[in-house]
Automatic annotation (TrEMBL):
This is Glycerophosphoryl diester phosphodiesterase membrane domain-containing protein. Keywords: Membrane, Transmembrane, Transmembrane helix. The lineage of its organism: Bacteria, Bacillati, Actinomycetota, Actinomycetes, Streptosporangiales. Residues 49-75 have a biased composition (Low complexity). InterPro entries: DUF7847. Residues 1-78 are annotated as: Disordered. The chain crosses the membrane at residues 111-134, 167-189, 210-243, 249-270, 304-325, 331-356. Residues 122-361 form the DUF7847 domain. Residues 19-29, 37-48 have a biased composition (Pro residues). It holds the Pfam family DUF7847.
Length: 420
């Protein structure tokens, strides 16, 4: 397990000891040896001879007295470099959210376009399943007498369509969101320096990391689903024990179920926070699934509650925004699909509206959550590994050369950590 420094053997393939511009040695160092000649400064001298100094240098403030309460010799800190979407220093919550919005605005075609494709692929199966529901329920809404007729086959078919469509949607979402997370993380890694990357280039540099990304997501799915299997087994045993028993036993079973739900929610938040940076470690650092999860665990250590709070707040914010965008389309689709005549046209229109609502909601949710997780990862490295010094040095060199080279992606490797 690397502690953030790494060794030559740990670096990804293609990593050279002497990197190409802009990270190689500059042709002329801005520093000079002691005693050598210095070029004259281009600006005014910092200290000027005042009228009461007798022709000698005055070392007082050149622009009047210091403000009251400010110690002599201390001035405001210069602002941090900001070549891209974030300032290159440890980030506050506002910096993280502002940087995420700037990420989306700086490359909307790649970020929102890819997110829309992923969201639409996941929404289509749900819309198809909803169409079957509209087709089964609409005749009942228009014929009250049919509500009293029992139709087990139609009911089972409707439920089956819903469950099958939900399963297909989750499967597609699993693949699409995993790929999207990797591509968006690569775009974010370049946007920190103010560089842009095309969708094709982001895909070309990310696809080699997809097996490891799917490995991380698969391991997380196992971790999240393991307690569910245990909960189901406990409930089956408990239900069999209290079946036909007293009401007190049934009440105890209900309390047991509620307690397990509360514990499971805490379990999900804990592991989601601990492994939140694993995708970034896979894409930006070139790690394998297990090593990336270990890396995320170590980065979160020492700042768990802050990371948890920001991720939880982000979930609430994007959930609210997604609901505002999604609910009107969902309501319109259900009204047209259920209250309409039950024709093919109304069912199709209702299903399309449901798909549009789901796509709009997820199109905002996916990139915002991925952006916040990626910038939190950068923040933790700046706080724990002095990684802001690495980023600042690279940014100065990029500003000197006037462009952002593709080798900026390699700066995220932990061997570049400034922590000793």
């Amino acid at each position: 397990m690397s502690d953030g420094h790494g060794s030559a053997s740990e670096r990804p393939s293609g990593w050279a000891a002497e990197q190409p511009p802009p990270y190689g040695a500059p042709p002329a160092s801005p520093w000079t040896a002691p005693g050598s000649e210095q070029p004259p400064p281009s600006g005014p001298p910092p200290y000027e001879a005042g009228p009461q100094s007798g022709g000698q240098q005055s070392y007082g403030p050149p622009h009047g007295p210091y403000p009251q309460g400010q110690p002599y010799g201390y001035g405001p800190h210069p602002p941090a470099l900001r070549p891209g979407i974030i300032p290159l220093r440890p980030l506050a919550l506002g910096d993280i959210y502002d940087g995420t919005i700037k990420l989306i605005r700086s490359n909307p075609k790649a970020v929102l376009g890819l997110s829309a494709v992923a969201a639409l692929l996941a929404a289509i199966p749900l819309a198809v399943g909803q169409g079957f529901v509209f087709g089964a329920v609409a005749p009942l809404m228009n014929d009250p007498a049919a509500l009293q007729a029992e139709d087990p086959a139609g009911t089972y078919g409707m439920l089956g369509a819903q469950y099958v469509s939900a399963f297909v949607s989750y499967a597609i979402s699993f693949v699409a969101v995993t790929v999207l997370t990797g591509v968006l993380t690569r775009i974010l890694g370049r946007a920190v320096f103010g560089g842009k990357i095309t969708t094709q280039e982001a895909w070309q540099t990310t696809r080699r990391r997809l097996p490891a990304l799917f490995g991380v997501v698969g391991l997380l799915a196992l971790i999240m689903l393991a307690p569910v299997a245990v909960m189901a087994a406990v409930l089956v045993v408990a239900f069999g024990t209290v079946a036909g028993g007293s009401p007190e036993a049934a009440g105890g079973l209900l309390l047991l179920f509620l307690l397990m739900i509360v514990l499971y929610i805490g379990y999900v938040f804990f592991f989601r926070t601990r492994f939140a940076f694993a995708p970034a470690a896979v894409v930006l650092e070139g790690r394998g699934p297990v090593d990336a999860m270990r890396r995320s665990w170590n980065l979160v250590t020492g700042d768990f509650w802050r990371v948890l709070g920001i991720l939880f707040l982000t979930t609430l914010v994007v959930g609210l925004i997604a609901s505002i965008l999604q609910v009107p389309f969902m309501i319109a689709g259900m009204v047209i699909g259920l209250v309409g005549s039950g024709s093919v046209a109304t069912i199709v229109i209702g299903s399309i509206l449901v798909a549009v609502g789901g796509t709009l909601g997820a199109m905002i949710t996916y990139p915002f959550e991925a952006g916040v997780a990626g910038l939190l990862y950068a923040d933790r490295r700046m706080r724990g590994e002095a990684f802001d010094l690495v980023l600042q040095t690279a940014a100065i060199e990029q500003q000197r050369q006037g462009w952002v080279h593709s080798t900026a992606d390699e700066l995220w490797h932990p061997s570049n950590s400034a922590k000793s």
